[in-house]
User: Which sequence fits this backbone?
């Protein structure tokens, strides 16, 4: 059985959830995934930095409160020295879960770059590094013979990139349509039940789906980044956000929703990518009124979904959660499993 | 790049479709799937048997008409000597696509057994060998260090077994619900549009969805076999059809359908499998009236779907075609890709 030492960059909800999974499942997890995992480094804005090459006591750090710090612990520091830890940790896998701004993807891009440059594989669920610097970072990973994995950047733990690349291998995918933002889908559902756009957004905020500033959800820029990732990863499009036309749902009225319902249709905010016969790819984000037979029409609440149109198999659709703490931690775990499988295969070839 | 020689047992719609894919795609297919494929044996009730270790001219055999025979061709015979060909072909992969009776799975079970015993990997989309003799045949494959793959036995080319085993690795699946028979789902949809059960079944037959005898579709025995496969493969249940309670849709009336619609619900024929905390598994096939929020409620027409309830990720649902000539041939191709990946990994370890 193989083994991986893990560095957690950022110790907010998602990386805490991953630490909980590793801590609470122990041997059962190893049996399930075929490798053992140990956390040897953590950085966090509140707690600082901690490097312990023999393994960090996860029960202890998971019980820390906001007024505590890693300072004074062996290998501890009161500062979150992200890049220092990334470069000097004994971990072979870096889990990047800090934050990312939608303009340049920082600081996540720099964290990923530092990890790959120092010969560590990386998993992240941050859209920024993938959508904005994916090509550079993937090339860097290849040059250093490590992996850069980011399954969770599109639909959290619901598999979509690996589904397309592995489970649907051998199919030609000609187009992709997705409901890629749970907040806007929830809002449109509440409008079907009679709520106004503003009331539905307020409800999504109260339930924790929407951010304090719901613009990225409602105006489609969150979906736009995910469309870039899907187009580049699955269709090899090489596009940027500037290539994705974007219309959000703020122009959809209660009247529009009611009129669609009368025709048996449902408004959905759909990210679409299509490759034509010449190979050129067009991509968009826009509200569409979908008939009941459309594979995305039945996707309700905060659920996300992606429908692939293929040559041999027609349309295949996967749906599931697109957010959530444990759900996103599972995306990281699935990336770690993929990194392990790849390294095990490489070791076999090298032997 | 690796290479596989293929024997096609049965040359009806599905294996012909696989031959068409291999013939028409050639180098593009090899680039897509990472291995080259060559057909070296074919058996068929009409044409007889053909073994040519240097590779069969697929264009020639695909253009044969029903009054022609393999007799007189080099390596040809007028009789479909299935077991002889399976045991003596130079192929390393046998594609079993004859037929299977739902009582003992023959002759498909014998074909699979003969192939595995003679050291060949097998792919089949026949439910019979998997549902009725899966444990024996999987053990036989392991003993002979070959693979027995059957992704298409549940939902044709729509991936479900490999999705659960690989793409969802690391998750604990506690329950599975599926719409696993396109004919009955189509029939229920037509009943929602006002048709009677009998008229809807006749329409399904006219469209080629339903068999001349639609009993297995309508009364749930087709779904029952698929439930056995899902329960044993994914939850390790070790059950037989006798353990799966079964109620078909023949008791559902137009009134039932209309009453459900008035409540915002849709009748679906659902195969269900659940594992309780003690580990024991219960399984059933029965019509259920599903509310609009249920992940299977929006599955329309002849589409199939499976919803997995998991510990970390909540419910993940995959939907797509559950039948069709090319769709089922893709299931065989996806099994060949999996066999290749496994053998490549083994070769790496042995090196």
Assistant:
């Amino acid at each position: 059985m193989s083994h991986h030492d893990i560095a957690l960059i950022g110790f907010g909800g998602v990386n805490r959830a991953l630490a909980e999974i590793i801590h609470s499942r122990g041997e059962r997890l190893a049996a399930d995934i075929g490798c053992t995992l140990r956390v040897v480094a953590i950085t966090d804005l509140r707690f600082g930095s901690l490097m312990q090459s023999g393994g960090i006591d996860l029960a202890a750090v998971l019980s820390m409160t906001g007024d505590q710090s890693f300072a004074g612990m062996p290998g501890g520091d009161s500062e979150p020295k992200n890049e220092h830890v990334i470069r000097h940790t004994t971990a072979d896998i870096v889990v990047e879960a800090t934050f990312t701004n939608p303009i340049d993807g920082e600081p996540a891009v720099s964290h990923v770059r530092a990890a790959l440059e120092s010969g560590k594989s990386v998993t992240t669920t941050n859209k920024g590094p993938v959508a904005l610097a994916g090509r550079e970072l993937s090339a860097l990973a290849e040059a250093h013979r490590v992996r850069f994995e980011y399954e969770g950047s599109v639909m959290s733990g619901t598999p979509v990139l690996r589904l397309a690349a592995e489970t649907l291998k051998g199919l030609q995918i000609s187009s992709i349509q997705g409901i890629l933002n749970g907040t806007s889908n929830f809002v449109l559902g509440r409008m079907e039940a009679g709520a106004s756009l503003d009331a539905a957004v307020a409800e999504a905020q109260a339930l924790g789906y929407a951010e304090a500033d719901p613009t990225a959800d409602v105006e489609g820029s969150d979906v736009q980044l995910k469309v870039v990732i899907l187009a580049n990863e699955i269709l090899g499009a090489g596009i940027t956000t500037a290539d994705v036309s974007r219309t959000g749902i703020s122009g959809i009225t209660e009247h529009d929703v009611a009129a669609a319902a009368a025709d048996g249709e449902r408004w959905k905010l759909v990210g679409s990518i299509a490759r034509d016969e010449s190979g050129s790819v067009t991509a968009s984000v826009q509200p569409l009124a979908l008939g009941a037979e459309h594979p995305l029409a039945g996707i309700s609440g905060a659920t996300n979904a992606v429908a692939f149109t293929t040559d041999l198999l027609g349309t295949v659709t996967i749906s599931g959660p697109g957010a959530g703490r444990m759900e996103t931690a599972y995306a990281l775990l699935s990336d770690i499993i993929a990194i392990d499988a790849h390294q095990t295969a490489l070791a076999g070839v090298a032997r």
